[in-house]
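Researcher: Sequence recovery benchmark, item below. Answer with residues only.
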C-alpha cells in the first residue's frame, strides 16, 4: 500500500523514503526535558533512601562514635561522669609503640586470617566441584547437610570443638591415649599458641566452607559445557580446564567470596574469645578483635580499645581495596 499524502503535501522525490516522524517534545521545551531526566536520575536514590538511613543509623553512627572515643581519655571514671578529655593521637601512639601489637595481636590476626581464608576457599571450591558432578537429588541432599555447619552459631560450634579437644575427655585426647601417643593425663592443646590457632582454624573453616561451596557451585552451573568439551578435545587435563576455563568465568564469584571471607576471618571474635585462654589480657592468644574487647571491658580503657578497633577497620578496608584493585587491573589487561 502506498503512503497517502495530504492535499498540500508534495510527492517525495524518486528514490527517497519517508523517515519516522519526530518525537513530540514535552511541553516546556528543553527545560522540561532536563527536569524529567533529573527526576529519573534521582528516582533510584529516592528508593534507596530508607535503606541508606537505616544503614547509617546502625553502622555509621557506631563507627563515628568509636572514632570519637579513640581520640579521648575514656575510662570507668569518664563512663560514670559522662565527661572525657581530648588527648589527640595519644591512644594511637600508645598502640603503635606497644610491642604486644606487633609481636602478638597483629601477627595472630594476619597469619590466622590468611591461613583460614585460603583453607576455606580451597575446601569450598573442592566441595563445589564435587557437588557439580552429582545428580540433582543427591546434590540437594548433600547441600542440605553441609549447610547445617554454616547455620550453626559460632558459640555452639566453638564449644563443640572445645569438647573435641578437651584435655582429658576429648575425642582427640582419648584416641591419642589409646594409641599411646600422649600420657594418660592428657595434653592441653589450648596452652600452645600453634595448636590454639589450629583449632580455631578448623572451627572457622568448618563454619565457612559451606557458603563458599554453594556460591561457587552456583557459578559452576553457569559455565557452558561447550568450553569444557573444547578444552577436553584439545587434551587439557582437569587442572588446566579449571584454571584456564572455569576460573576466568568465575573470577567475580571468587572475588566476592574472597573479600567476604577475609572480612569475616580478620574480625573473628567468638571462636577466639570463648576458648580457654582466649579472654586473658596479655596472653599470646589474642587477635586484634579480642584485644580491643579485653582492653575496653576488662581494663576499662575504652579510648585505647577504640583505637584498636579503628586500626582493625582500616586494616580490613586496606586489604579489601588492594585486592579489588588488583582484580580489576587484571580484568583491564585482558
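Model:
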Amino acid at each position: 500500500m502506498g503512503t497517502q499524502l495530504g492535499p498540500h503535501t508534495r510527492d517525495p522525490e524518486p528514490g527517497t523514503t519517508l523517515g519516522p516522524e519526530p518525537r513530540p517534545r514535552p511541553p516546556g521545551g528543553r527545560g522540561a526535558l532536563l527536569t524529567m531526566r533529573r527526576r529519573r536520575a534521582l528516582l533510584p536514590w529516592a528508593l534507596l533512601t530508607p535503606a541508606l538511613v537505616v544503614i547509617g543509623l546502625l553502622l555509621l553512627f557506631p563507627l563515628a562514635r568509636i572514632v570519637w572515643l579513640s581520640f579521648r581519655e575514656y575510662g570507668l571514671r569518664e563512663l560514670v561522669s559522662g565527661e572525657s578529655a581530648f588527648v589527640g593521637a595519644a591512644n594511637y601512639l600508645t598502640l603503635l609503640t606497644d610491642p604486644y601489637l606487633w609481636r602478638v595481636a597483629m601477627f595472630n590476626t594476619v597469619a590466622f586470617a590468611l591461613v583460614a581464608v585460603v583453607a576455606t576457599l580451597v575446601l569450598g571450591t573442592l566441595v563445589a566441584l564435587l557437588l557439580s558432578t552429582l545428580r540433582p537429588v543427591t546434590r540437594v541432599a548433600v547441600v542440605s547437610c553441609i549447610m547445617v555447619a554454616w547455620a550453626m552459631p559460632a558459640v555452639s560450634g566453638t564449644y563443640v570443638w572445645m569438647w573435641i579437644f578437651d584435655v582429658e575427655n576429648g575425642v582427640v585426647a582419648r584416641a591419642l591415649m589409646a594409641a599411646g601417643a600422649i600420657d594418660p593425663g592428657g595434653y592441653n592443646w589450648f596452652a600452645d599458641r600453634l595448636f590454639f590457632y589450629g583449632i580455631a582454624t578448623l572451627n572457622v573453616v568448618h563454619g565457612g566452607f559451606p557458603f563458599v561451596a554453594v556460591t561457587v557451585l552456583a557459578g559452576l552451573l553457569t559455565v557452558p559445557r561447550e568450553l569444557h568439551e573444547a578444552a577436553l578435545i584439545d587434551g587439557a587435563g582437569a587442572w588446566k580446564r579449571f584454571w584456564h576455563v572455569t576460573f576466568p568465568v568465575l573470577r567475580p564469584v571468587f572475588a566476592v567470596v574472597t573479600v567476604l571471607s577475609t572480612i569475616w576471618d580478620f574480625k573473628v571474635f567468638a571462636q577466639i574469645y570463648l576458648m580457654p585462654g582466649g579472654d586473658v589480657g596479655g596472653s599470646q592468644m589474642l587477635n586484634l578483635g579480642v584485644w580491643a574487647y579485653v582492653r575496653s571491658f576488662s581494663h576499662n580503657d575504652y579510648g585505647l580499645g577504640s583505637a584498636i578497633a579503628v586500626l582493625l577497620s582500616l586494616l580490613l578496608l586496606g586489604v579489601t581495596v588492594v585486592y579489588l584493585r588488583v582484580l580489576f587491573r587484571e580484568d583491564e589487561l585482558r
